[in-house]
Amino acid sequence: MPAQFIPRKSGRHRIACIALYRTLLEQCLRVPIPTELQPKGFTHPLKHLVRKQFRRNVREHSPKIVVAALKTGYEAEELIRAAGDGDADSRHKIYDLLHYRKSVATRSALVPQPPKLKIRYPEAIPGVPKLLETRPLPFEKLSGPRHVPKFAKAMVSNFLRIQKPQSPYLSRVLRDKIDTRQKRVNSRERIEYLEEIAFAENTWEDLIEDQLENEGLSVDKWNKKQPGLGWGVGFWEKDLQLADAYVKHLMVNEALKVVELSKKQLEIVDKEKELWKQERGQRRHDKKLAKLEKKFHVKHEPAPI
Prior knowledge:
The protein is mainly α. Helices cover about 65% and strands about 0% of the residues.
């Protein structure tokens, strides 16, 4: 039986599709677009359609669908090329298509959309005690042999791995922590960029102040004439420095919390290991004792008459 042909894994097929894709994008720029059909952005509307169709069919492996898509692509290339050369009928067909798509988009925009609810899924089960408050479990609450939790390291916080697969709630908590940390890092980078602008602004004000003094003018008098503007005070960086210190304070506190939490988790792991060793020794002792009792009972059992 011949192997299944997968078009996107064929080199010749990929080269042909890429060549058609590039040709279509190049020809799109040759077609002028009327004012009423101009897009909101900078992308040519025909280029948007071409990219959308290629993205839609990129995973197709059915020969029937692939052949039909290629046939449509070559026909579109001929139509767009003719429109770029100035053919009136070809341009009329393209404009009709763009008018139709614009009308569909306008009608869709008028349909009220239900508000999207932001759900933090999954949430913690109400009333369930925290893991650090219940571990290590006493022997009476075990339903089988004790499993020592694994101390796992993550990018933003360490945690105890109790089971596999990982709890969806734990995954959500880790994602939230990663998002929070990334937002703070982005904030500090933004503040650093603004501090450079503030430093340049202070430098500019110093230069202007020196120039005013050379001309016999005073910045204080100018500030009195223009109250509230605060020109010449040189405090452009102050608020940014306070904001950066606040974000840094949050990140340091979070890091200290991670350290304290990790200490508690490691203590739990050590206690669980110690209990596991004790329970394993007790199980082995009970097993040997049971064997001895069984052997002694069989040995001294009276022979049947």
